[in-house]
Design brief:
Beta-Lactamase; alpha+beta; six-stranded antiparallel β-sheet; five-stranded antiparallel β-sheet; 21 strands; Phosphatase 2c, domain 1
């Protein structure tokens, strides 16, 4: 039987959804801000009965959070002028979450306001903010991170964005609370405006510009107080600075609403972001401050992470440069080239090498490897390298030098570790070399005729195990031959066997040395970039050639 509804042709049409007002609280205020009515939904939302709220100032009942008293004064002033005021607020007696509050003029009965409160958070974040959260921090480069922040804000949130970071954090690594009585020295890392292509985001004020934000400027005030600053025109100091850049003043005149947000990471102000909107966009309001705060929180932590990474990288690079062999005075007939490649993001690991000039027109070559990479291996490596260099300068026989180095390593106050070392003393005049090893990979000797062989030497035990004796072997170095000392990262890996790695190294060296025009540093570079290598450990290679 066909129903009357089906005959009417309304089958399948969705029923109209009536609005759900359960999460809307309404109340009315007199012109002084006292509550004159309190709805049932307000009781349900905030747990306060009408008899306990009517007649009381709203700032004593509902808006008790920091800064909310000023917000109420502004809202009442707007309503008294016949305008609607909206804001997003949180905290105080409102409880957890954020609330959208709308103030409308109340006609009759001497004026006042109708206040409508609705849960505003949690709710889906705007798409630009979701995208920003996903993208910001993809790089540990400071400028790139700042550019990601500016690109995320424009045009979804603002028509212009400028990102500043405190200069002292970059040059002195001082992470202290900002006190800017004389102004804030900042570096502009990125800027973007909606009429500007992304590729030109470093303009109009020049890349990495260092400026002083005067104590009266909004950016300085935001950094000094740790609070956002809303303003509707540029300060005279900023306006004067923009006149130095063609077209910048004209573009700045097109913005009529601004917001300065401090960038706070780990409780410390690390910079600020300036956002601007043109007349075509609505002026910033207190709800926008909430959104900008979400962006600033993410941006500040990512910028500080990039700063910390940059500091560690510079520290590691300085340490590594300091550990590279100095310009040793080599014998005239001896040519030496060397290269170090760290694994992954490590700049300093467990590998070390050194070249030491010895009496009698000789030279000592040292290559060592403390197990692992990163700061722990580097700490061991630094001590071993320093001790090895000092012992080598004493011109001790190789076996005695390794014995003393082993004794020192056994007494290191660090967690148990393994370290290997090979020590070679080359005498070009005699075309010979004496070598001793402590658990290290055997050297490779490449001859001028294109052949090569792995030297069969007593391997010895790794350093730190208390070995009582190491054996020395003497090797002849024909004219034009090349001796290769290296660490195991060059020949070992999970994707190839040791034999395959040794064969690949020999093939690479003989192929590169077959061309007399190839310099020894070029041979060193090509041999440390073998196509089969998926580098899993630090790589060190030292090549020595006795000239004919």
């Amino acid at each position: 039987m066909v129903s009357e509804r089906a005959r009417s042709g309304k089958v399948g049409l969705p029923r109209r959804q009536e609005p759900d007002l359960a999460d809307l609280a309404t109340l009315t205020l007199d012109p002084e801000g006292r509550i004159t009515s309190w709805s049932v939904t307000a009781t349900r939302m905030f747990g306060r009965q009408a008899r306990d709220t009517t007649g009381h100032d709203i700032c004593d009942v509902l808006m008790t959070g920091p800064g909310q008293h000023d917000l109420v004064k502004r809202a009442l002033a707007e309503v008294a002028a016949g305008r609607v005021h909206t804001a997003t607020v949180a905290g105080g007696s409102l409880g957890d979450g954020r609330f959208a509050v709308r103030w409308e003029p109340l006609g009759g009965l001497g004026g006042g306001a109708v206040v409508i409160v609705q849960h505003a958070w949690p709710q889906p974040a705007p798409s630009w903010l979701r995208d920003a959260t996903a993208k910001i921090g993809s790089s540990l480069d400071l400028v790139e991170t700042a550019t990601e922040v500016a690109d995320a804000a424009v045009p979804g949130f603002a028509d212009v964005a400028i990102i500043y970071v405190a200069e002292r954090l970059l040059v002195a690594d001082e992470l202290t609370s900002t006190r800017v009585a004389q102004g804030a020295v900042v570096r502009r890392l990125a800027s973007r405006h909606s009429r500007q292509p992304a590729v030109a985001a470093r303009k109009p004020t020049g890349p990495s510009e260092v400026i002083v934000l005067g104590p009266g400027t909004p950016g300085c005030r935001a950094m000094a107080t740790g609070s956002p600053v809303l303003f509707d025109r540029l300060d005279s100091e900023t306006a004067q600075r923009l006149t130095r850049y063609p077209g910048a003043s004209r573009r700045a005149a097109g913005y009529t609403s601004y917001l300065a947000i401090p960038l706070i990471a780990r409780g410390v102000v690390v910079g600020c972001a300036i956002f601007g909107r043109s007349p075509a966009s609505p002026p910033f309001n207190h709800g926008d401050i909430t959104l900008a705060g979400e962006l600033a929180s993410r941006a500040a932590v990512c910028l500080d992470n990039a700063r910390l990474y940059d500091r560690e990288r510079r520290t590691a690079q300085a340490l590594q440069q300091g550990l590279l062999p100095g310009r040793a005075r080599l014998p005239d007939r001896l040519e030496v080239a060397h290269r170090y490649r760290p694994v992954g993001d490590s700049v300093v690991g467990g590998d070390w090498h050194d070249i030491v000039a010895l009496p009698g027109d000789r030279a000592a070559l040292i290559v060592g490897d403390a197990m692992g990479h990163g700061p722990e291996a580097a700490a061991v490596m630094v001590q071993l390298r320093t001790a090895a260099h000092t012992l080598a300068e004493l011109d001790l026989p190789p076996e005695l030098m390794l014995r003393k180095l082993d004794s020192m390593a056994a007494g290191l106050s660090v967690a148990p570790f393994a370290a290997t070392c090979v020590y070679a003393v080359i005498d070009p005049s005699r075309r010979s070399c004496v070598i001793a090893q402590a658990g290290h990979q055997p050297p490779v000797l490449v001859f001028q005729d294109g052949t090569s062989r792995v030297l069969d030497l007593p391997p010895g035990l790794p350093l730190g195990l208390g070995e009582e004796r190491f054996e020395t072997s003497q090797v002849s170095l024909p004219p034009g031959s090349v001796l290769a000392l290296y660490t195991d990262g060059l020949v070992e890996g999970r994707t190839w066997t040791l034999d395959a790695g040794m064969t690949a190294l020999q093939d690479s060296l003989t192929k590169a040395l077959a061309d007399p025009a190839t310099s020894l540093p070029e041979v060193c570079r090509s041999a440390t970039e073998l196509p089969h290598q998926d580098v899993e450990d630090d790589i060190t290679l030292v090549l020595a050639r006795v000239r004919p």
